[in-house]
Design a protein that fits this description.
P-loop_NTPase; 5 domains; ATP binding; 16% strand; Arc Repressor Mutant, subunit A; 6-stranded parallel sheet; 9-stranded mixed sheet; binds adenosine-5'-triphosphate; alpha/beta; ATP-dependent DNA helicase; binds magnesium ion; 29 helices; Rossmann fold; DNA damage; hydrolase
Length: 756
């Protein structure tokens, strides 16, 4: 029996489909991702397709790795040549090869949200835009939306007509793009936009990739935007050796799981697939393999309330399972407390392990209370999307040095570090350099190189010169063949005096900054160890493309907590969806939107995504009282709970002793207005958890060591753990290293390993 015999007839049809466009449109858990994976394996194994000719696009890097591993298991050698990656990583690779044809250097920098904001602030200043009236963020949003729709600055201006505000936006977009290009930098949306631009303008580059990617697969197709669609359409329109367009494109998606409209996802990409790709074959998968009957029925009932959808019937052969449970808690604190206790009880009774559980919520902010409870109860957990290491000042500083070394045109990075550590270069000097750069149409860094020629800088030029020679020195080191890339961070720290300044500061905060920088070095070391050809640019790229979900590690036994958005495509035996209240989920923004029907439908799809993550047991909950933006709110249970027929729901009281009786009022279904109202805090006292302090034990969070254990650190060697404290988002582990003294480290980045 071959592995393909495990597929049902429709899945098999999709896997064995020969050539030409194929759309697999199917509900959650019906094996779409599995079909894509098997199809890749099948093409290699049975159709002699060269792995090199396959491009598979997934939604996260993590999903890409999983897909590659699975194919690897099936076909053995060769799978490493399949190009499996996200849209963004795909585009970076293409642009690194060909972007010079658009007038950029190949060593371009990728700007993150923070860099974008800094740049936009400069743009607004330059254009005299009153950011109180038109906030930078709203301009950036408009630009992002335009890029998703492939609208260029020129086109944007045309469309703005005589509208004053729109003209301001257009001017900002134009200037923002001009500066990005001058900085040899691309923002995230540019990665796709510029690749499309490249392909539209450069036949040779397009043909190269059309010939290379003879088979294209796209997972989670429902969340592609217009620019992404154009990209794959271009790639899939190659002409084969017989002069035909084969359109060997296979996409899988579920219109009911489209949850990224706010990021430009265009549902028409699915609905119009058959028009866009002539002779497309459409296969529907209707059997769900993931969930119990009760869970699947609940999902079907909820999503049936959406009007604008393709009718689908999803059924399962799986057992009926337990009813879906719904619990109405008094407060968000009680909700977190009870749920975490319940999970602990199940795990301690050996019915499941922690990594069988996921807690899902609508917004990241909801994770905090859970985290407090988990820490208090010594339950190992991992929060996806909560800790932003790369947003820390010291990390951004060091990265800015690295970026400057790679790409001197990156003005934002150069300006960030020109006076860090302090070199006596003040704002007045920076302004003069900047003016000179603008006037002469050169980069800020090039202007620094010519400091002596800048009028009014005769005296400060002597302060600028050492900076320039520092960068030049570092640049020539990394270009020498014998240079060990892992030493670059130390070289920066020493040459700039950055380390010395922090050491002299002597505060605990400075200590932590030093430690964080060394964690960045750890990341660099492991990058150098694993990359095929390690380069500084490659490292920066890896850092800028990490997504939160990539850090999830199933091999670790911890509960995962994440937003419903992050959970797309994943599955867990036990799922908790909390905060199912009007105003929380659906959120108040959707309820009060200009077009609430549409927004509520998007929230409902998100609910459908959430419910269908569960395999065995689904627990829904709401809290009557929830703290929101510092105020206590009373909320009614979500309309989505109301949409699940009562016979599928087991409504329990928090203490599980009596079945909770709803007052009819608890489920009033008025839509279009929020039912939340304020209660002053004196009316209601939540039960407050004491601040977590010091913890020992060997089973804390994602770490497997406790106080008194010996651990190993890449830089500091072995030491003894003397303290572990739960911080806001991570554990702070104090370790006494015989050679380096006592260090406080962030657990999630220190990569400490227990030594037996
Ligand atoms: N023919 C099959 N036999 C047994 N198990 C299957 C079969 N097809 C799929 N599965 C299993 O069902 C689960 C769901 O499959 P998969 O993740 O591919 O679904 P999906 O349609 O991609 O879901 P989602 O819409 O959530 O992305 C997986 O555990 C998968 O291994
Ligand atoms: Mg999937």
């Amino acid at each position: 029996m071959s592995i393909y015999d495990t597929l049902n007839p429709e899945q098999k049809k999709a896997v064995l489909h020969d050539k030409g466009p194929l759309l697999i449109l199917a509900g959650a858990g019906s094996g779409k991702t599995r079909v894509l994976t098997y199809r890749i394996a099948y093409l290699i194994e049975h159709r002699n397709v060269n792995p090199w000719n396959i491009l598979a696009i997934t939604f996260t890097n993590k999903a890409a790795n999983e897909m590659r591993e699975r194919v690897d298991k099936i076909v053995g050698a060769g799978a490493e040549n399949i190009w499996v990656s996200t849209f963004h990583s795909t585009c970076v690779r293409i642009l690194r090869r060909f972007i010079d044809r658009l007038g950029y250097d190949r060593n371009f920098t990728i700007y993150d949200t923070d860099d974008q904001k800094t740049l936009m602030r400069d743009v607004c200043k330059y254009l005299d835009i009153d950011t109180k009236r038109i906030p930078e963020k709203s301009i950036l949003n408009a630009i992002s939306k335009a890029k998703d729709e492939l609208i260029s600055p020129e086109e944007f201006e045309k469309r703005a007509g005589h509208d004053y505000t729109q003209r301001k936006y257009a001017a900002a977009y134009m200037e923002y793009q001009r500066r990005l290009k001058a900085s040899n930098a691309l923002d995230f949306d540019d990665l796709i936009f510029k690749t499309v631009e490249l392909f539209m303008n450069d036949k040779e580059a397009l043909t190269y990739y059309q010939n290379r990617f003879r088979y294209i697969m796209v997972d989670e197709y429902q969340d592609t935007n217009t620019a992404q669609f154009k990209l794959i359409h271009l790639l899939a329109s190659g002409i084969n050796e017989y002069g035909e367009r084969e359109y060997n494109i296979c996409v899988v998606g579920d219109d009911d799981q489209s949850i990224y409209k706010f990021r430009g996802a265009n549902i028409y990409n699915i609905l119009n697939f058959e028009q866009a790709f002539p002779n497309a074959k459409v296969i529907k998968l209707e059997q769900n393999y993931r969930s119990t009957k009760n869970i699947l029925n609940a999902a079907n009932e909820v999503i049936a309330n959406n009007k604008g959808r393709k009718q689908k019937t999803l059924w399962t052969d799986n057992e009926e399972g337990e009813p879906v449970s719904f619990t109405l808690f008094e407060s968000d604190f009680e909700e977190a407390d009870r749920i975490t206790s319940e999970i602990k009880r199940v795990v301690e009774s050996k019915q499941a392990s922690y990594n069988d559980f996921a807690i899902l919520y609508r917004t990241n902010a909801q994770s905090r209370i859970f985290e407090e409870k988990l820490v208090l109860k010594n339950i190992p957990y991992k929060i996806i999307g909560a800790l932003n290491f790369y947003a820390r000042k010291e990390i951004k500083d060091i990265l800015a040095y690295l970026k400057t070394i790679v790409n001197g045109k990156d003005d934002i990075s150069v300006k960030r570090i020109i006076n860090v550590p302090r070199r006596g270069i003040g704002l007045a000097t920076i302004d003069k350099v900047n003016d000179y750069a603008v006037l002469n149409d050169i980069s800020f860094y090039e202007a620094l190189v010519r400091a002596r020629q800048i009028p009014g800088l005769e005296r400060t030029a002597s302060k600028i010169e050492p900076f320039v020679s520092l960068i030049e020195g570092l640049r020539s080191s990394i270009n020498s063949d014998s240079y060990d890339l892992t030493g670059i961070i130390d070289d920066i720290l020493n040459a700039t005096g950055y380390l010395k300044e922090l050491e002299e500061e002597g505060t605990q905060e400075a200590e932590e900054r030093i430690d964080n920088i060394y964690e960045l070095k750890n990341k660099l070391v492991s990058y150098v160890e694993t990359a095929e050809i390690p380069t500084l640019n490659g490292f920066l790229e890896e850092v800028s493309l990490v997504s939160d979900i990539d850090s999830m590690d199933e091999s670790k036994d911890n509960i995962v907590l994440m937003t419903l958005h992050s959970a797309k495509g994943l599955e867990f035996p036990y799922v908790y969806i909390c905060g199912m209240e009007e105003g929380t989920f659906p959120g108040y923004m959707a309820i009060n939107a200009e077009n609430p029907e549409e927004e509520i439908e998007e929230e409902r799809r998100l609910c459908y995504v959430g419910i269908t993550r569960a395999q065995k047991r689904l627990s829904l909950s709401a809290a009557k009282f929830r703290m929101f933006r510092g105020e206590m709110h009373y909320n009614k249970p979500s309309r989505f709970i109301h949409e699940i027929p009562r016979h599928l729901l087991k409504i329990t009281s928090p203490d599980k002793k009596t079945v909770y009786k709803f007052a009819d009022d608890d489920f009033s279904k008025e839509s279009g207005q929020t039912s939340a109202y304020h209660l002053s805090q004196t009316h209601y006292k939540p039960f407050v958890t004491p601040e977590p302090k010091n913890f020992g034990g060997s089973n804390l969070g994602t770490i497997d060591y406790g106080i008194g254990d010996t651990v190993k650190h890449v830089k500091f060697g072995t030491g003894i753990v003397t303290n572990i404290v739960a911080g806001g988002k991570d554990y702070e582990v104090t370790v006494d290293f015989p050679r380096f003294g006592v260090k406080k480290l962030m657990a999630s980045f220190a990569n400490l390993t227990k030594v037996d």
